[in-house]
Write a structure and sequence with these properties.
mainly beta, single chain, four-stranded antiparallel sheet, 51% strand
Length: 123
């Protein structure tokens, strides 16, 4: 499982920034993918960003739109999500996840999930 922490506050004013961090625990493999997902009230969980062990990144075309940055420390198995220029549409429960080896940018590819953390962006 993942130990996740919220940095920057869960309630953010529109236009503000927030950084989310997760630390993986119990992962014994070196090759893995880590990602962030989010789920807004009444909506399905959607992919936000992905980071592979070799440094490759992928971002959702429907979320972030150049405003989000995923990064991590492969040795420490941490993954961060930097969110800038937040809007109320970004309000959702955010989840960190991990998968062994390569993974597609969808929830079905990830088997290790951290607890969700609520991000609320006010107008």
């Amino acid at each position: 499982d993942f130990s996740c922490r919220r940095l920057g506050g869960g309630l953010v004013q529109s236009g503000g920034s927030l950084r989310l961090s997760c630390v993986a625990s119990g992962l014994t493999f070196d090759d893995y993918s880590m990602a962030w997902f989010r789920q807004a009230p009444g909506k399905e969980r959607e992919f936000v960003a992905q980071l592979t062990w070799n440094g490759g990144t992928m971002y959702s075309a429907d979320s972030g739109k150049g405003r989000f940055t995923i990064s991590g420390d492969n040795a420490k198995k941490t993954v961060d999500l930097r969110m800038d220029s937040l809007t109320p549409e970004d309000t959702a429960d955010y989840y960190c996840a991990a998968a062994k080896g390569w993974a597609t940018p969808d929830a079905e590819s990830y088997t290790y999930w951290g607890p969700g953390t609520l991000v609320t962006v006010s107008s």
